[in-house]
Inverse folding.
């Protein structure tokens, strides 16, 4: 089954404790991205990647890191999480097709206390 | 920067009615749009797309209209069902030249039985 998976689905952590949210897709897509979703603000892009070893900042990259060492994986790293990073996070991927349709993961709900 | 946006945050309809969700965009160079549906607790899911060389595109119970003159597009859902209750986003996939969508804030469609 074609899908994007994220882990963990739920995470409660404390300020300053480094964490990684994993993202993996099995569709051989070149493009991957991370979004955060907050009430009243909609989906905002954090980082995206056009290909392996190619990443770029989205609209709200501060406090986040990403890496793209393999085509299928695109982890999101919070080196020192803060309460304002409490949010719902989505990973997505898309292929180099005319539609640029994005396939989204199920989301990771992160709470930083 | 230029972005897409939705007119109304919430739309309530009766089951069986037709629903119309509107979206305005500001980038006159935008030539491709996608509508996504996000059900509670899930990631967004592709519904339908439209290119600027079209005024109308139909899917199963959904129709998207594009008016390039006033930079407006709409999503019409025929015979709305309770399962259509979700948040709907329009997106401009080519915004900023990244070919990864910028999303509007979304319209919450509530279908009353």
């Amino acid at each position: 089954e074609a899908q994007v998976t994220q882990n963990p689905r739920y995470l409660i952590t404390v300020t300053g404790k480094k964490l990684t949210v994993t993202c993996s897709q099995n569709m051989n897509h070149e493009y991957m991205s991370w979004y955060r979703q907050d009430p009243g603000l909609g989906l905002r892009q954090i980082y995206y990647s056009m290909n392996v070893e190619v990443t770029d900042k989205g609209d709200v990259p501060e406090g986040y890191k990403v890496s793209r060492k393999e085509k299928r994986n695109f982890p999101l790293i919070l080196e020192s999480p803060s309460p304002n990073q409490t949010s719902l996070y989505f990973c997505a991927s898309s292929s180099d097709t005319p539609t640029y349709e994005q396939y989204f993961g199920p989301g990771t709900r992160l709470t930083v206390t | 920067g230029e972005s897409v946006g939705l007119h109304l945050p919430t739309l309530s309809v009766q089951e069986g009615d037709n629903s119309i969700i509107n979206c305005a965009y500001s980038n006159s160079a935008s030539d491709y749009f996608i509508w996504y549906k996000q059900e509670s607790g899930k990631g967004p899911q592709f519904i339908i797309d439209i290119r600027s060389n079209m005024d109308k595109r139909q899917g199963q119970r959904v129709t998207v209209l594009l008016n390039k003159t006033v930079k407006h597009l709409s999503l019409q859902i025929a015979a709305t069902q309770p399962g259509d209750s979700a948040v709907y986003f329009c997106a401009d996939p080519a915004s900023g030249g990244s070919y990864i969508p910028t999303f509007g804030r979304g319209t919450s469609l509530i279908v009353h039985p």
User: Anything to note?
Assistant: Residues 64 and 109 of chain B are 16 Å apart (CA to CA).
